[in-house]
Amino acid sequence: MDLNQISIGFNIAALLLCLADICFSVLAGRMGKKQNRYFMLILAILMINSVTGIIGRGIDTGLRLTSDNAFEVYRITRFIYFFTHSALCPLFYWYVSSVIDVTFSVKGTLKSRKGTDKLNLFLFIASEAVVIVNPFTHLTWYYDSSREFHRGPLEMVIYICAAVSFVITFDLLIRSWNVLTRRDKYMMVFSFALALLGILIQLVYPLCRAEVLFEALGFTGVMTVIENEDERMNVETGCYNRAALRLDVAGCIRNRRHFSVVFVRLHDPGLVQRLTGSQSGDLLNREIVRYLLTKVPSYSIYLANPSTFALLVYDEFAGNIHGESPERWAEEFSGHIRERFDSPWKVGDAEIPVSVTVICASVPKNAQSEEDLFYIADSPFPANTENGLICGEGLSLFTRRMSVETAVSKGLERGSFEVYYQPTYNLDKSLHGAEALLRMHDPLLGDLYPDEFIPVAESLGLIDEIDEFVLCEVCRYVATGKPGELGLDSINVNLSVLQCMKEGFADHIDRLVGTFGIDRHFINFEITESVAANDYDLLRNVIKGLKEKGFLFSIDDFGTGYSNLSSLFSLGVDVIKIDKSILWGAEESRQGYILLENCVRMMKELGYRVLIEGVETASQIEILTKMGADYLQGYYFSKPLPVDRFNELLS
Ligand code: C2E
Ligand code: CA
Ligand code: CA
Predict the structure, then answer these.
(1) Which among 354, 372, 403 is the end of a domain?
(2) What is the 3-state secondary structure (H, E, C) of 106-160?
(3) What is the pLDDT of residues 126-177, one digit of tens each?
(4) FRET label pair with 546: which of 73, 372, 385, 634, CA 20 to 30 Å apart?
């Protein structure tokens, strides 16, 4: 076999390879993105090059010299080859630059790149120009009288342009190197090397036309790296996944692009499934994606976590609306998305109402880093936002929560926590006991209240340690003997119910308190009634165990949960604390009065002692005296106080 035949073989292989790549991309539905259209163009050029190669090689020997027609065809294929092939490098630059821009139009990105974009365009025009004028100038290539092909002096222009274009493409890649994974980098280098190898082979053996095949191989490699959508896709919904979001957001931030992320958080992602059956959760998600596709291109829709969609809204989406900033546009856009959820969604035959919160965060205005954005995506959304939309100033809520999280997680080691005490009284206004209530003083955020930091501590899994800190503080205080002197019967310590259910909890607590050598009757644990029904047996055992050691137990916030009363009574606690809202309600309506009156009566008849919290006025005390409550707690007597002032108050 001679080199000519080998060259034809190479070209046929290149043709088939490009054809396969194109089919693959079309079948995978990837034609929507700009970057893919560039890529298709590159592949089309390689196909044209291989066809001209095949025809050229076929005609070359012998025929070219003997037949005028054959020579004419040969000249045309050569021209087409030069015309298309010299566009390859500039096109590759555009391809890479649109990939790096997260597949996006070139405007508004890295300032320094504007220059290289113009340079690339110039290189493209220059190399095409020397090809187009060649039939008149014969300076790029020409044929002598014996129809032999010769390179002209201007051919160097094509090579130089290609080389410069290649260099600026490489520069682009290097600058966004960190966006690529390690494996991607290896494949990228390998693909580049492959393409270069082909060019080298052809330089050394000009008759062995390996260039096009090796370029096709190299581009196929690049395509598998960059276009590896499988890893980026969420199969169930058909949108991009969390990893893709992370990568794309990182790329945008690195390139200092301005954009907004619109999060659509479903409040109850399991609802549809519960209402209609097994697969319908995905059906709803797909329905939502279908709707989102009417608003933004497919490449900007992601599933950030199982209950949150994220839309990357690039500033370019806003177009050139007069007097309106892209951020403002994104906020209005978020409002429209939010409104869609006012009407139900069709899933199968069912019409299902879906409630969501939509959050619009603009980068860099409201969020500066990838972490900020994912923090928003993953934080619990506040339930009671105005019209379910959070944007602009509203996002400060997340920054606040983020700093509270930091403060809480460092709180114990920094010594930010302090236990305050609020006294409780008998009905005759003599002292009964106290409740230990936690306060936080953070060096950066100042004073924090439990309503803010306790839920954060719970979500960070730090509530156990914190409750234990409170218990130890209380034990230490009791051990000083001061509470006994002051005449306190007991001190109430709040416990998270979840903590009580942990294995070995009762023993652990007993041992801990034991180290302080105090009378266990001094400690009265408060737990809320929010327990799942099937956990009552476990809880009952824990309470029984600790009560046998001498500890007391109270049910806190009675009347706010939806407890199973008979299960609650089976726990065998000592005191029921009726929630302040029930007391306050008694002054507002006859209904509220009857509720409080009967709560107190029922508890008394069942043998519990009843504590009423939130007592603020003398008239409330009057009502409670009539009803026969046992203990009172509230601002009427005292707010929670630091231990020194608490001692002062009582002595
Ligand atoms: P809670 O256990 O129901 O505590 C009673 C809350 O009502 C306290 O708020 C107390 O300051 C407030 N309060 C008492 N009397 C009055 C009154 O007359 N009027 C009004 N408006 N409020 C009154 P605080 O200290 O902000 O605690 C809020 C919640 O944080 C507590 O509710 C409790 O659930 C939780 N918490 C506080 N300290 C701890 C702790 O050490 N561990 C755990 N797990 N939770 C705690
Ligand atoms: Ca309490
Ligand atoms: Ca309470």
Answers:
(1) 403
(2) CCCCCHHHHHHHHHHHHHHHHHHHHHHCHHHHCCCEEECCCCCEEECCCHHHHHH
(3) 999 999 999 999 999 999 888 888 889 998 999 899 999 988 888 777 766 6
(4) 634
